[in-house]
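Re: the multi-chain job from yesterday

Posting the exact lines I submitted so nobody has to dig through the queue logs.
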Amino acid sequence: MTAAQQALLAARPDLVAIARWVASGARVLDLGCGDGALLKYLWQAKQAPGYGVEIDAAHVVECVRNDVNVLQMNLEDGLATFGDRSFDCVILSETLQAIHHTEQLMRDMLRVGREAIVSFPNFGYWPARLQVAFGHMPVSQELPYQWYDTPNVHLCTLQDFEDFCRRLGFRILERVALDRGRSVGLLPNLLGSLAVYRLGHGLTP
Amino acid sequence: MNAPQLPPGSVGLVEAKKAAFADPLQLTSGAVLPQFEIAYETYGKLNAARSNAVLVCHALNASHHVAGSYADDPANIGWWDNLVGPGKPLDTNRFFVVGNNYIGSCFGSTGPASPNPATGKPWGADFPVVTVEDWVAAQARLADRLGIERFAALIGGSLGAMQALQWTLSFPQRVRHAVVIAATPRLSAQNIAFNEVARQAIMTDPDFHGGHYYDHGVVPRRGLRIARMIGHITYLSDDAMMEKFGRVLRGKSGPGFGFDIDFEIESYLRHQGDKFASYFDANTYLRITKALDYYDPAAEFGGDLAAALARARAAFLVISFTSDWRFASARSREIVKALLEARRIVSYIEVNATQGHDAFLMDDARYHGALRAYFENIAL
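And the result, C-alpha cells for all chains:
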C-alpha cells in the first residue's frame, strides 16, 4: 500500500470496510465521489473499474487529475443516466445524510447496482445523545457542523436506517459500526460513530 | 526584422500548409470528389513513437488556424490559441497538434469556390454536399500523409465535436481519446429549423444565382448577413446577451421611431453579419448546415445511440455548458448515457457558464483545468 493510500484509509475509516466488500474486478459506481480517492484506490488495489458521480466542479477536476472516470451530475436528479443492474456495486459514502430525495436515491441505487454500500454518521452515538440530553444539537468529528450551517438534512441512527431498509425491501448483507476507526461489536447503535452497510435485494429474513 | 511580440505560451509564428490528394474520395451522398486538398497547420513535434498526435476539428466558421499567428498577418491569432500552446492545457511541448480545415470550407481546403477540374471554373452549386463522415474520411487521408497511425486524441467543439465523435466510429482503432465539447448526437427539429432559415436567407438573395454567383462577379451578401445574424443569436445565451447589450440604445437618448439602429444589439448583429459576409462563402454555409442537419450516427441503428457508439474504442471526455441552449447539456448527457450503456469509458463535465454555446471557446479556469488534467493523463 502506498503512503497516499494509507493516509486515505486512516482519514476515512469507512473506506476500509467499503474496500473490503468490493470484489476484485467489480464495476463500481461511487455517488458523491469527491476527488475520486476511493475509486482510485479500488482501481489500484482491486482492479475494480469505477465511475464517480460528483456535483462540485473543483472535485470533478480533481477526479480527472486522479485519472478517475467522473460524471458531473446532481444526485438529487436521480440515476436515470444509469441502466438497470449496470454496476456490481453502488457506493454512497458519508453522503446519505445530505441527500434530500433519500428514498428515490436509495431505490435507484439498488436498481442500478447488484449491491449497494452506504455509510453515514450515527446520530445515536452516545456523545450525540448526551449533547442532546444536555440541550444541544450534537457537534462532533463525524458531525462537525453547527445546526445553522449544516448541509445535513437527513440524520438517522442505525435502528432508523435498518427500519428504512426493511420498508424499502432491501436485505442487509453486512453491517459494521466504527468508533475511531475500530469496529464496535457491542451496542453498535450507542457505541458506533460511523455505520457502514452492505445492502442487496430482498428483505432481511 | 524582429518577430512580433507574442504572448507567453504562444506557439509563435505558424505556417498554413496544404496536402493534395489525387485519389478520388467517395462521398456519403454517392458523389465522388475526384481530387482534393486539405489545408492544415501543425504545432509541436511528432514524437518518434508517433503516439502524441492530437487532431483539432473546427466548428462552423473557424479553420485550420488553431493557434499562433502569421508573419505576414500578426493580428490573425488562431481560434483556439487560449487552449493550444507550450504549457497550455493542450501542451505543444508534449503533443503534436494538427489543425485542419474540412473539405467544402472556404479557408483553403477544396470547396465550392475551388476550381472544378472538369470545367476549370469554380465548382459553385456543383460542389457536392459533404457530411461529417466525409470530413472524417478526408482527415484520415491527411493523417496517413502525416504518418499518424493512431491519434492520442481527437478534440472539437460543436460541429468539431461531431467530427471527434465520428472519428471514434469511422476509425475506432485510430483514436485513443475523444474530447467531445458542446456537442449533440443529432440536431433537434429546432436546430434544423434555424439552419433552414439561414439557408433560405442565402438562397433567396437575388445575388445567389442558384449558387453560381462567382460567374456573375457577385456574392449573396444580404443572405449571408442574415444567416450569420440568426446563427449568432443561437450561439449566445439570453443572459449573456442581456448582460452584454441590455436594452442600451446606440448613440441616442430615446427611440428613433424609425428602422435605423436603435439598440446596441442591433448594431452588434449587423456588424457581425457584415464581417461574416465579407469573408465567408455562401455555398460553404449551405453545405455546412446540411452536414449538421444530416449528422445522426444512431440512424443506422434504428435510433439506438448506444448500439451506434458500441464500436468506439476510445475513452471519452464529454463537456457541456449550462447556458448552451443550441446544444443543451441534456444532449451531451444523451451521449454520456449511450456510452455508459455501451460500456465505454467516459467522463462528463457540465461547466457552469453564462456565455451559451460559444462558451467552449472561452478561457475558464475549471473548463481548461479539466482539459489540462485530462491531457496530462494521456500516456505517450
